[in-house]
Design a protein that fits this description.
This protein has 185 residues and is mainly α. It is 74% helix and 0% strand. It is built from eight helices and no strands. Helix 4 runs parallel beside helix 6 and helix 5 packs antiparallel against helix 8. 31% of the residues are buried.
Length: 185
């Protein structure tokens, strides 16, 4: 029963893995477009590397941010990455790497009133940011710009999410401490 409950709680992650596997196996038989690019991988090694990191990072993000925000972050990253790669860089970049880097940021910048922003998140941002900026200059077949886009979209999504969450918490605390409602006369 615990396995079934685990699958229910991480169904979106499992679905993404299945779609990535299918996209990798059939990449030579399906067209490159917005829907397929994020699920295709150059080879099984590329697929395995992305899935390893994806599986380490994804469950915490899906649990912490909720399914809708998880899907929102995925779609934001996929759209921005695809548009940049296709219409600015003029390359056909494939893979889930951009979202994996967004997951790094979403994991690192989970905040609450008690703990604030993670210092490890800031260090990771600088390490991976520097690594990917320096990698852009090399023609090594890796989409370093896609990784940077993932870092940026994850950071923006985490920032906006945390601001909205904080505003809701502040509003709820204000309502609790005032002890009144609009129906009190």
């Amino acid at each position: 029963m615990a396995i079934v409950n685990g699958l229910k709680s991480e169904i979106i992650s499992v679905l993404i893995i299945v779609l990535c596997f299918i996209g990798t196996v059939l990449k030579d038989h399906i067209g490159y477009n917005f829907v397929t690019a994020v699920f295709m991988h150059g080879n099984m090694q590329h697929f395995m590397n992305n899935m390893l990191l994806f599986l380490m990072l994804s469950p915490a993000v899906e649990k912490t941010y909720g399914k809708l925000n998880y899907i929102g972050a995925f779609l934001l990253t996929a759209i921005v990455d695809y548009l940049f790669q296709t219409y600015v860089a003029h390359v056909m970049a494939i893979g889930l790497s951009g979202f994996v880097f967004a997951l790094f940021m979403l994991n690192c910048f989970i905040t609450d009133k008690r703990h604030g922003i993670s210092i490890c998140g800031i260090i990771l941002l600088f390490i991976y940011g520097f690594k990917e900026i320096s990698g852009v200059m090399h023609n090594d077949g890796i989409s370093h710009s896609g990784h940077l886009i993932g870092l940026a979209t994850g950071l923006v999504y985490a920032f906006v999410y945390n601001k909205i969450k904080q505003a809701k918490e502040d509003y709820n605390e204000e309502q609790e401490t005032s002890g009144s409602s609009m129906f009190d006369v």
